[in-house]
Amino acid sequence: QLLGNEGVAPSAEPDAAQRSARAVLEWKTRSVQDLLQLFYLTGLSGKRTKHGACFCLSTAYEGTYLGCFYVDVTVRPQVRIRRHSVPAFIPLQQLAARHLPADLKRFLSVLSDHLNAYVGRRYQADQLQERFSSHLGGTVQRNSLCNMLAFSYNTSGRSESFPFSARLLYGDPCRSLPTEAVVSC
Amino acid sequence: MDEIVAEYIRRTVLKIPRHEIKTMLQTWGFLSEAQLQTVNFHQTKDSVSREVVQLCKDNSADIKQAALLDIIYNHVYPNKRIWSVYQMNKSGEETDFFDLRDFKKKFKRRLQTALKNVTINFKEYEDNAIWIRIAWGTPYKKPNQYKTSYVVYHSQTPYVFISASVIRSTLPLLCQALAVASNYHDIREMELRSHCLNSLKDIVFKRYSQTFQTYYPRPLQERNVTSENVDLRIIQENKNEKERILRVNREVFGDGPQPKLEFAQYKLETTFKSNPSLDVSDIKEPFRCLVKFSSPHLLESLKSLAPAGLADAPLSPLLTCIPQKARNYFKIRERKGIFPGSFVSP
């Protein structure tokens, strides 16, 4: 904003001091933007609001960024969630009851674990469907949390029969790897 | 093939708009492509429906197939019905794996134990939506296929969308069966109703666009700078005010499309407050009043009120809280404001 409002100096040649002040401002702006981008990349960033703060939990799986979720909290009289964009199958209410109002940091950390694990599982299920469709018989059956996958498959990718059937259970909601796998043929 | 089934299929086909019939029958998948080729879909719907029924007879369609076609029709045209939202509660914190077979079994068993004469059919869609169609009978009469309720449930969520049939007495039984099947222990009706099923989903699943204050600019968000015809002879006297209104409006409603609701209803039970000189101040009973806002698209019209100059910005929070509180039926009592929410706003 400051850079934009700077008018053109009446004299034809801008001052050397003015030029360097502008350069410093540009550098400062860039480094703040980079810092904010860095915060976003860490998975948890926030901004103060007139009520309290708004947190952005960004998620990723093995280097691929997968979108973000927001939690808007008030701090007076106690820490309380005002609005959010967390999906309904994530147990937000339970996590809030357990960790708020005492420990906001822990709440955000646990919530971030749940969200990252969910998007990780969902991403893996999508990739399985997309990249191994010739090995799969039909679609991969899943649920909203993607913590149960069931599918039939073959190993060759060529034949029409899918002799194996697998059922993967992801018992830990904060992990994106299965805890139990049952394969039958 | 049962005459009742035949007639039911015929009537279902008649409901479908003519240019959609072939596509819907293909989705249904009960008639082969070769069979569908034999039907002339350009003749009158009456003739089309009769030909389709004949083909179904050749394939010996039963009530299960007919019910499936009905589910498909309602899935494509859900806005012909009015949907209510129900919320379920549970105390347990164990990880729920949601076994679909288990869900279906428990649901059917619960319902059929209480009422033997019901037709129950399921269809799952790729967005994890489970559609359930129930045709109701009585202890003495077979299910009436024209008296149906529809349920849409997304696994592992506490929300159920129900389009009830005309028989209101079946609702408690249906709700109970749903709670039991999905491992919740109670279920209550929310104050949220609309014809637009997807908008109801958007509201409770928080899929609608909310504005959150953030430093990180959202990648898909591009401020649309409307290039107005700049005629330098015209000076906007209240340009600042206009910009303020747009800004406040945007903070409240966000940038994206609003969920589609047709009405909001406010039941007032407050005492009449007036100028003390008027002689009505001794009326202590609440002044009962019902205010109903209707619109083909209520939230979009509320969003356009302030920019159009028809209302002050910001609008009353009673109007703007609708998607966030997930309700469009309100009761306003004496103490100012709506009921205090729980820890997390729904």
SSE layout and pairings?
The complex is a heterodimer of chains A (185) and B (346).
Chain A: H1 2-5, H2 16-42, E1 44-48, E2 52-61, E3 64-74, E4 80-84, H3 92-99, H4 104-131, E5 136-141, E6 148-153, E7 164-169, E8 180-184
Antiparallel strand pairs in A: 1-2, 2-3, 3-4, 5-6, 6-7, 7-8
Chain B: H1 3-15, H2 21-28, H3 33-37, H4 45-58, H5 63-76, E1 83-89, H6 100-114, E2 118-124, E3 129-136, E4 148-154, E5 159-163, H7 171-181, E6 186-194, H8 197-204, H9 239-253, E7 263-271, E8 286-294, H10 298-305, H11 317-320, H12 322-325, E9 329-332
Helix pairs in contact in B: 1-4, 1-5, 2-5, 6-7
Question: What distinguishing features does this structure have?
Answer:
heterodimer; A: 185 residues; alpha+beta; Copper Amine Oxidase, Chain A, domain 1; 2 domains; 4-stranded antiparallel sheet; 4 helices; 8 strands; 29% strand; B: 346 residues; S-adenosylmethionine decarboxylase; Ubiquitin-like (UB roll); 3 domains; 6-stranded antiparallel sheet; 3-stranded mixed sheet; 19% strand; globular
| Global geometry of chain B | globular
Average of pLDDT of chain B: 86
What string gives the helices and strands of chain B in order? Answer: HHHHHEHEEEEHEHHEEHHHE
Oligomeric nature of the chains: heterodimer
What is the CATH first-level class name of the largest domain in chain A? Alpha Beta
Pattern of helices and strands of chain A: HHEEEEHHEEEE
CATH class of the largest domain in chain B: Alpha Beta
Distance between the termini of chain A: 66 Å
Q: Round the Cα radius of gyration of chain B to an integer and report it.
A: 25 Å
How many domains of chain B?
3
- Poorly predicted runs of 5 or more residues of chain A: 1-12
Mean pLDDT of chain A: 86
Major sheet details of chain A: 4 strands, antiparallel
The CATH architecture of the largest domain in chain A comes to 2-Layer Sandwich
* Biggest β-sheet: strands ordered side by side in the sheet of chain B: 2-3-4-5-1-6
